[in-house]
Design brief:
- The protein is α/β, with parallel strands linked by helices.
- It has a single domain, classed as Rossmann fold, CATH 3.40.50.
- Strands 3-2-1-4-5-6-7 form a seven-stranded parallel β-sheet, sandwiched between helices.
- The chain is globular.
- The site of nicotinamide-adenine-dinucleotide has 28 residues, from helix 1.
- Belongs to the short-chain dehydrogenases/reductases (SDR) family.
Length: 246
């Protein structure tokens, strides 16, 4: 594997476990200097993860103050990041819209969508200043298609896709690219927030008849986060085992 990200300061939100940890491991193997942001940094275990980040910070990406404080620390200590991966997310409960509690709706939108705005906004000026950056957001096939029972999650992910396309257009001549990836289901602790019926229905919709692997998704992100992804911005990369139709 080439170390095409050698020395690049990289923020990965929700990087303490699951998909974020897998992305962090892959980008670190490509040479990136990874900083993990997570609301539960204690989840991170470098032995289990198989790599050492340069820093692990406690951040609630849905909280404007928490993001602003952590971003300032990063900018002061490490300088402008080259890569920001907006990965942190929650599924929320699987219930119909008519039973969806407003507070829960707000939290799902905040963690999955407000966070993408807050974290991107915090680093864009420094990335533009150095005329280079890669922002990659982990969206979901749910944001393209809509899924019954998880309207808040699907709405937030659709919003993250709209945000990606908008910010990409704002930064199109800056050297900073902004892309997203829309995965299908991956076996992580996130599935503990879902019902067995919901998981079965999601699996049944994947034409490859298997779940997506964390390493497979990390490989897509690794390309979108690399210097090679230089003429692609505002795009949503597919990782859906043949499910996506656009
Ligand atoms: N697992 C799937 O099937 C799947 C499919 C499509 C998209 N995704 C997306 O991938 C991303 C990662 O999901 P995962 O499956 O690894 O989930 P996970 O629950 O295993 O890990 C999520 C990580 O995000 C952190 N986190 C949660 N809220 C946070 C907050 N407010 N601030 C900072 N960190 C926070 C958690 O502590 C955890 O470490 C999410 O955005 C999710 O929506 C997952």
């Amino acid at each position: 594997m080439t170390r095409k990200l050698e020395g690049q300061i990289t923020i990965i939100t929700g990087g303490a476990r699951g998909i974020g940890r897998g992305i962090a491991k892959r980008l670190a193997a490509d040479g990136a200097q990874v900083i993990i942001w997570d609301i539960r940094p204690e989840y991170f275990d470098s032995v289990a993860a198989g790599f050492e980040p340069i820093d692990t910070m406690a951040v609630d990406v849905a909280d404007p103050e928490s993001v602003a404080t952590a971003a300032q620390t990063v900018l002061t200590t490490y300088g402008a990041p080259s890569i920001v991966v907006n990965n942190a997310g929650i599924n929320g409960p699987v219930v119909p819209v008519t039973d969806y509690d407003f507070e829960t709706w707000r939290r799902v939108i905040q963690v999955n969508l407000d966070s993408v705005f807050l974290v991107s906004r915090a680093f864009v000026p420094a990335m533009v200043e150095k005329s280079y950056g890669r922002i990659v957001t982990v969206a979901s096939i749910a944001g393209k298609e809509g899924v019954p029972g998880i309207a808040a999650y699907a709405s937030a992910k659709a919003g993250a896709i709209g945000f990606t396309k908008s910010l990409a257009k704002e930064l199109v001549t800056s050297g900073v690219t902004v892309n997203a990836v829309a995965p299908v289901m991956v076996e992580t602790e996130l599935l503990e927030q879902m019902t067995a019926e919901h998981i079965a229905a999601s699996k049944a919709k994947i034409p490859m008849q298997r779940l997506l692997g964390i390493e497979e998704l990390a490989a897509v992100v690794a390309f979108a986060a690399s210097p090679e992804c230089s003429c692609t911005t505002g795009f949503v990369f597919d990782a859906s085992g043949g499910r996506a139709t656009y």
